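#struct-help
A.M.: can someone run this one for me? Single chain, 404 residues.
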Amino acid sequence: MIKKINVDQLKPGMFLHDLICDWMSHPFARNQFVIKSDADIQKIRDAGIHEMYIDTDKGLDVADALTKEEADAQIHEEMLQMAQEQPQIIRVSVAEEMEKARKIHAQASKIVREVMRDVRLGHAINVTNVVPLVEEITSSIMRNSGALVSLLRIKNKDDYTFLHSVSVCTLMVTFCNSLNMDANLIREAGAGGLLHDTGKMKVPDHILNKPGRLTDEEFDIIKKHPEDGHALLLETPGVGEIPLDITRHHHERMDGSGYPDKLPGDQITTLSQMAAIVDVYDAITANRCYHKGIPPTEALKKMWEWSKFHFNPKLMQAFMRTVGIYPVGTLVRLESGRIGVVTEQSDTNMLTPKLKVMFSTKSNTFIPVQEVDLSKPLGFGGGDKIVSHEDPVKWNIDPMRYIV
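D.P.: on it. Structure tokens below:
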């Protein structure tokens, strides 16, 4: 049986089934292993991991611990309660915005690549194109965030570092806009997202793109990138305090277990707390040479569970309301047995988005594409509800085909 425990209950002889943290935060070569000594437990504590799942069929038990099913039900209920709150208002449809969003995304990728190339070559960083780009991204987000955000899921593994920076910029602008922040603040936060991983260009390629777990020594080198990026941007004219702060502190954690400065939550700025959420969300939903991305809905569920210690829970709630429990492009199964792609968020309830359905699990066949608005009653395009998110690979469905 899989059970959830806290680190104070962990003992040698227990079989660790899953560490409740993102895969970038723990120092172990495997996610599942037997706890052999107190040294293993201390290593887990040092990594800032407070909770974990154990397999009681393979190791020692904790009698009164929650089962994984009970823990999942608790998290699901908390997310459903948050989903009832009204999301941001959409001004145009995803389809209307998509062409502009594609051009902005391509432009952003080009600019980030140029910035990173300058760092690699030892040249001065030119940030003159960053502010106009962030303004373009902001304009697209304000018209409809779903178009540009849906494109963030398309990443070439070889170009991950560049595209991740574009994603963090876009998500930061979306997040800030949803909280009605000042326009100048949004632009600075977006610039911080675009430049936050500049220091990774100081990391050797064989470490940055290693197809497997890093050694402790390699992980220490990776962990220097916030400081390296901060130092580079300090020497760059036109970079403000907010991008500098985000670059240095996007890996800090609320419990003080982050890096490079091990700041406790009350010493981490709000924008850096937001950047930490956005950075992890994009990282764990992306496919890498050593890590298969997880679906956005599952990523939000995991991050909500981690937020008790690593993220600001109120900001995590706000981020989930920003992107939606089922973000645009998510493949979902309906109670009727049909499968569809989320194409638009509802303006009243995150659990009732607009979809395009194209597959029936009852007949196991593709069906004529139908637009469904779950916010409407039966007979008017609705009368159904989402019961789960689905893996596009399992059903051989490319969600992007149905967004426009």
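A.M.: thanks! DSSP finds 15 helices and ten strands in the chain.
D.P.: also worth noting: The mean pLDDT is 88.
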